[in-house]
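Suppose you are handed a protein chain with no further information: no name, no annotation, nothing but its sequence. What can you learn? This example shows the usual starting point.
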Amino acid sequence: MTSHGPISPYQIANVRLFITFRVLFNARFYYPVFSILFLDFGLTLSQFAILNAVWAATIVLCEVPSGALADTIGRRNLLVFAGSLMVTEIAIWAFVPRDNLSLLFWAFVINRILSGMAEAAASGADEALAYDSLKQHGDIEQWGQVLERQIQIQSAGFVCHCHDHRWPDLRPGVVAESC
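A reasonable first move is to predict its three-dimensional structure. Written in structure tokens, the prediction is:
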């Protein structure tokens, strides 16, 4: 708090980084055509279902250990780890050999495990880091406003990108005008 009242939550670095992380972490290019891509690689519908089960099971199995890991290595380090897992997950898409269906399936098993681990690692750590920073440096009553802004930017980015492939102006107050 300043002598003139609470500062804007967007002046707090971890709040800005939280919004950026969430938007980029959830901007995986393949989500809208997820099943089509897997099937286009030559996987069967049954293999696709198995991969989704592996992904979900990985999230469930890693959720509690990722919380303990956040307590051990810190939330920020866990988020860096989550981002690294996501980059590795995407790299598998880029470099997986398409000519060996058996190897392809197991490469995608690894892809789904990495994706599930990334989801579990990021789950809560990003929000907790931003929330604690807002609590320490700003006004905790603004937390809802921060979450609202994150969803607005993420939604505007999706809509604008789908509309004509341009990125929205992410400054507060102009998000809606950029579309």
